[in-house]
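Appendix B. One record, verbatim.
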Amino acid sequence: MLPRRLRACLAQDLRVASACSELALEITTLAPDAEALVSAWIAAASSEGDLWRDRRWIARRSALIRFLDVWGVEHDQPVARALADVVTLLSCAGDDRRAAARLAQPLWLEREAVLDLRKGLAALAETQTRLCIGRVAEQGTESDSTGATDLAVALQAAWHDALSDALLTFSEQTSSAIAAAATLACGADDAFASDVALVHALVPVGEVLTRPVADSAATRERRRWKKIEAKLVEKSEARRREKAATVDSTPQLAVADAPPAEVPKGHVLVVPAIQVTGSDRGRSIARGYEHIIGKPLPLVAVPDLAAVRTRLVFEFPYAQVTIDRLLADLIGREYTTFRPTLLIGPPGAGKTRLIARIAFHLGLGLWRVDATRDAGASLGGLDRRWATSEPAHPIMAVARTGSANPLMQIDELEKSATRSDHGRLWDALLSMLEPETARTYQDPCFQTEIDISRVSWLATGNEIGNLPAPLLDRLRVLEMPAPSHADLDALLEPVMAGIAADHELAPAFIAPLDGEEIALLRRSWRGGSVRRLIRLVEAVVNARETLAVRQ
């Protein structure tokens, strides 16, 4: 059930002479024209002396391998290539760099065959059981007088365990063979490999190479489990302390009456101490927010704006004016805070992604709100008396990021619900966008004044037609242009870099687009949606992988 190359590599007791004879029969059966080359190859293999340095042996094996490669292409027979690779395994020494390079890629591609065997383990175990004791009755039915059914169930389980162990061994040996082929192909020297056939060198040399990696992985796994155990112990202790505190039901005031904490420079006291009594839901309300209540939180400082602008213009070359107007808010400022802004532009112009990349390059925490799905005025928090009570979204963003100036992103602002049964998102925004009221915002959940004046608000939309005038009066409206056909060349490099990042690859691992591919994109994309351009480039990259010529 394994590919031919892997079968040869994993057969540790393989006798090269016998294997050559069997392989010669297969080659002449597939390609009768190769009989003379095969005979010469077998004859040269029987010569005495240092076989791996024998010029006759090298010449005849090379002629046979070359014939099989050409014959396989001419007759569209991939099996000929596999036979040529097995000839290479049997005929070359372990220090043959070219032979190892030839085998490294196909062995890597066939690694999946070992993993796919797991899908058939149950069927294999059942087949082996039937061969041993005949037809297997269904599990759970009454056994006959000989107890054959119970025996079959136990035997089938034993076969499954044995096959799983064998598969694990195959996987380890396959990885070792692949590692050895890649390393030897790069010119690594191994004294053992130079004296044996390549087929006998791959697995032992690979085991030596991969042992440090396996040891390191085992060490990391042990450290990971120790950290997990420590966290579990810590959580258990925290639950014990919390339970002990809950037992004391005497009504009390939390540190609300205590003197306010001293706020150092570059910090903001976002949530002061809140009123917590034993008779209401205050204890559960504050749970999860202990690290921000009554504690000054740091502000994210403004980084090098020139470097941030360079990176943003590289990713959005068509939106340079919009980027400059946004970053102008930070010029001369010590800490990052934007004016409340609404980006207006056509669908696919990259408004949402621009905000996300701004947050990334500035080091700001990002909190997204989808205006089309936000329920009423929940953005501003829900009252403590309700079972679904929760703080305002800016407080949730502060708690998640640990900073006093996260970036709030509201997508599709103009598509927010207009019904006011439970309040509207537009109305909830009004007091949070005004600096004076945001500094003393009354949170309905914590029931205290909080300071969210350093929180930045950036929203997106396609138009402003139905937005209420009080909301527009508090928002700066900037236009986000859609890229044109002339921006294609500037967009291709950042789009390719983004595709590489999505696949967790370095950009150098994806070859740049050639002239024919760029011409195809020019005909297919006439400007407009960046999302459509990304899909087109992804299709070109995927087609390149699919249509690439495989040896």
